[in-house]
Amino acid sequence: RVWILGTFWCAGMAAANAIFSFRTNSITLDPTLATLLTYPIGLILAKILPTARIGSGKFSFTLNPGPFSIKEHVLISVMATAGSASPYAMYNVVSQRMDMFMGNDKIDFLQSFFWVITTQLVGFGMAGLARRFLVKPAAMLWPGILSQTALFVSLHKPDLKLETWKISRFNFFWIALGAIFVYELIPNIFATALQAVALLCLFSKSGTARFLGSVSPPVSGPGLLGLTFDLQYIGSGVFLVPWIYQAQSWIGNYFFAYIVAIPAFFTNPFGHPRLGYGNEGDFYPDTLGTTNDTLSYFNSVSLFDKTGTYIRARALYQKPDFSLNLTKYNEVGPIYISDFFAITYMIEFMVLPAMVAHVVVWYGKDVIRQFKAALKQVNDETDIHNKLMAAYPDIPEWFYGGWLLLWTIALCLTCAFTEFRMPVWGVLLATVTSFVLIIPIGIVLGVTGTQIYLNVLQEFVAGLLMPGDTVAVMCYKSIGVNTAYQAITLLADLKQGHYLKIPPISMFASQIYGTIIGSIVYLGVAWWMMFQTSLELGAGDWQVLSYLTFYNAGAIWGAIAPARFFGIGSVYEKLLFGFLAGFGAPVLVWGLSKLYPSKYWHMINIPVIVYVTGAGSYQNFYIVAPLMGFIFSYYLLKKAPHWWKKYNYVLAAAQAGGVAAAVLFATALTANGVNFPIWALNPDPNNSYFDYYCYGVDMYGNPAV
Question: What is the pTM of this model?
C-alpha cells in the first residue's frame, strides 16, 4: 500500500506541478492534499486487497498486512512531499534549454536528468551526518512539524463527535472539493476577467487611476483596490498560517508595494528612462509621463537597456558559453529594471539579515542553551523518544558519508561534462558552504520554527567569484540552495519519524524514492511542456514568469555581476542598504521592548514582514486574501473552535484539490483547441489582459471606442 499510493501521489503531483510551473500565476499542489486523501483510500485498500501471501519464506509478502496504520500513512506522505516538490535545478534546465530563453540546443534530456538527480540527492548525505545534532536531542523540538504530526494523530483517532457538526471530515472534504471545482470553472473558463478585477480602472479613466489600479503583469501598476474571485491566487496559507503572522505579512506587502514602491515610481530615485517595449510602453498618456520621465512598466521582471527599451538577456551573451559580451553591454548599458523589481531585490537583501538578527536578539540565549543541551543529549538514552527508537536499526554515518561523497563526485562530473558548466572548485565550494550552514540553520529551525534561506547569499558569492559567467553562477546558486533545502527536508522528516516511531531506514527510503520518482516525472512533463505542448508559452495565462525571473536573475548576478549591477557607483547601489535595514529592524524592535516593556513586542516578526510577494505576480490579492485569512484563521477559530478544529485543514486541502482540478481541466480544453466565446468577462487571452479596460482597449485587444 505504501508503494502503490506513494508512487501514485509522487507521479501525479509532480506532473501537475510541472504543468503549473509554466503558468503566469504559478501554483503548487500542497502535499496536505495527499495526506488527507490517503487516509480514506488506505482504509478502502485495507478492506479490499487480498491477504494471501505472495512468494515463500523470507521473500514472501502480502498486499494487505492488516489495518491501515499511521506509520504507512506517514511514509506515503513523505513520498508525496518529496515527489511533489519542484526540483530547484529545473530552473536551470528551462532557462538554458527553452528557446524563449537561452535556447541552448546542446542540452538534451539525459544531461538534464543527471543535473536534476545529482542536485536533488547530494543533500541527503549532509542530513544524515547532521541528524545526531538536529534530530535525536530532545532540545531540538522542530515546532514547524508539530502541526503535521498532530494531523496524522487526529486522522487515526475516532472522528470528533460534535453535536452541531455531524458531517464526517471525509464527506466534508468531497463536498467542499466538488463545490470549489465547479466554482473555479467560472473564472478559469467562462469569465476569466474575474481572475483580476481592477476597480480603479472601472471607476476612472485617468491615467494615474489606471496605473494605480491595473493588476496584470508585466504592464501593471500596484493593483490598488484590485480584487480576485479566483481561489488559485489565494492559496492555502489563509487556512494554515496563524493570523498573527498573516497580518504581519500583509502589513509588509502593503508597506513595500504601496508606501515604498509607488512613491519610487513617481520620484524615479534610480534615474531610469521611461521603460517599455518600444511604442507599447506608454499606456497612460493623459497624465503620466507628460511632464517627467516616470516608468510605465511597474510590475515587470524584464530587463531594459539605457534607452528604456526592453532587451532580452541573451542579447548580452556571447556564445557558446553564454558569458557576458562586454562590447554589447557597453553599447546598451547600463541595464535597468522596473522600480518594483528593484524594491523586490532590496527586500531580498533584507530577509537573511533580518532572520539572523531576529533569532539572535529574541532567541539567542534559547538557541545557545538548547544547543548545549543538544550536545549533551546526542547519545541520551534517557529520552523517551530515543529509547523507543532504539528498537529500530539506524543507518550508520559511514553510509551517509559515502552517499555524500558519491553524489558530490557525480555532481562534479555532471558539471564537467554537460552544458550545466561550473568549475569543480565551484561545486565543492557550494556543497561545503551548504554543509557548514545546515547545522546553524537546523538549530534555528529546530528551536524557533524560523527557516533561513540562502538564495541571496549564494547568488552574491557566485557573482563575486565568477563574474560574467552566467551559467556557472546559476548552477552555483542551484547547488547551494537546493542541497541545503533537501537536507533540511530530510531532517524534518526524520524528526517527524522520531516523534511517531517510524524506522529511520524506512523514512530514508521513502524520501529517496519519492525524490527520484518525482524528479523524473517532473522533468519529463516539463520537457513535454517546452517542446510538445500546443499551449502558447510566453503569452496569456502561460507567461512562465517564475522561470523568466530566474533567467533574468542569471543575467543580473551572472553576466552583469553584482559588482557592476549593485556595487558602489552603480545605478542600484542604494539597494545595498537593504542589508543594513534587515539587521537593524529587529534590533530596533527589541530595543523598544526594553525601553517600553510589553508582552506584544515579541509578536512582531520582522522576517515575516519583509518576506513579501514582490514583482512579477498579479497584484490582485491584497484585499480578498487577507479577508479570507481573517475569517478562517482568526474569526472562526475564536467563534467556532469546534468547527475549525474538525474542518479547517480539510477545507484547505479541498481548496488545493478543487483549484488544481479546475485549472488542469481548463488547461486540457485549451490545449485541445476548445475556446469559449469572447465577451466582456472573457477577454481574448492572446491579445488582451484580464483587466484590459485599464489599457484603453476592448476585450479583443482593439482600441476602445
Answer: 0.84
